Amino acid sequence: MAANPFVYGEIVTDAAFADREVERDRLARDLLAGQKVFLISPRRYGKSSLVRSVLRDLGRQGVLTVEVTVAASSSYVGFLEAYARALLLAGTPTGRLRQWAGELLGGLRPEVRLDADAPGAPRAVVAFPGIRSSRDVARLAAEVFALPGRIAERRGRRLAVALDEFQAITTFDGGSVEHALRAAVQDQRQVGYVFAGSEPSLMEQMLTPKRPFYKAGPVVRLEPIDPDDFAAFIERRFVRSGIRPGEGLGAAVVDLAGNVPYDVQRLAHELWDDVRASGRKTATVEALHATLTRLLQEHGPMFEDAWQRLTLAQRAVLRAVVLEDGRGLLGADVRLRHRLASASSVQSSLAALVRADLVARPTPERYVVVDSLFREWVARQTY
Ligand SMILES: Nc1ncnc2c1ncn2[C@@H]1O[C@H](COP(=O)(O)OP(=O)(O)O)[C@@H](O)[C@H]1O
Ligand SMILES: [Mg+2]
Questions:
Q1: Residue 11 has what pLDDT?
Q2: Which of 265, 266, 267, 269 to mutate to test the pocket of ligand 1 (most atoms within 8 A of CB)?
Q3: pTM of the model as a whole
Q4: Which of 73, 293, 357, 365 is packed most tightly, with the most Cβ within 10 A?
């Protein structure tokens, strides 16, 4: 029996990957050329999947690859430790890690140990227990940020480094992190970097003239996947797994999911399960709506919580975002239609919704509800 061909909530590569050929080629070429690339899009658009897929290809061509999620660290030193660990591990067997760390970072007295209690296999941990003052931290940062260049030189190989959820760097230690990192990377000709970030407004600010990363390298703004290509991709995968897609199914999935890759895969995955469980051979648009209803029920309690936490003004603005497709929200006619107060109060409600990560602003003209299921829930269950 075929397995569900749709994957969501994890990084997808290869077969589960739709389209993105142009972006893949471009990113691979830039990284090979030692460029410092900024990759920007809202969450769930497929940045991490794209980066992972490109790094895999580069790895097959002999490039050393390193991937670190900046937002996973709770402190600056924690990030530097995670980054140093990932760099030291690139192309190094765990057994040689301690020696390699000593050779490259001896002056910082790194502590390398195997954490046997880690979930899964034993995990190598790199720590710098001697770091105390902010001077120490600055020295550590300078050494760790210089490491990719030194590794490339010592190993005689190119490196490709991905720093994912890069916008989180702005939460560490004021602006000095950006300065230190920018200063280090610009001399590293053998090392390509991709700085991928999910909060477009924070990422764009980082690229403005007064900030260190201004003109550091090419900027790639990841757009949605072409909806027709995505719909065709969904239908092909249904066919190949033995279920016939009903008329218009692919387009309906993409549309209901707001053409956000995560949401598209989620809806397709859940629909596929429902059809398979019912023993039917065709996935119809009616079945899709039944799946959507089931998902809305399952997520109901969570969406109610989110709704309850909003002020009345924010609820009204959220409904207007849904019903007006996120456009023209400050205009007098829209405000009248939805009984919204002044343009400035609408603006502050929108800002609060964006901060709460319920709403995003992919372009200056348009707001969207981040989660397409929540959008459907607001449209159907609120007044
Ligand atoms: N090229 C793609 N083709 C098909 N599905 C994709 C693609 N890129 C992303 N997805 C779907 O979107 C989900 C989120 O992708 P991810 O790479 O984690 O996005 P981001 O890093 O931008 O938040 C994946 O789990 C997958 O279901
Ligand atoms: Mg990601």
A1: 76
A2: 265
A3: 0.91
A4: 73
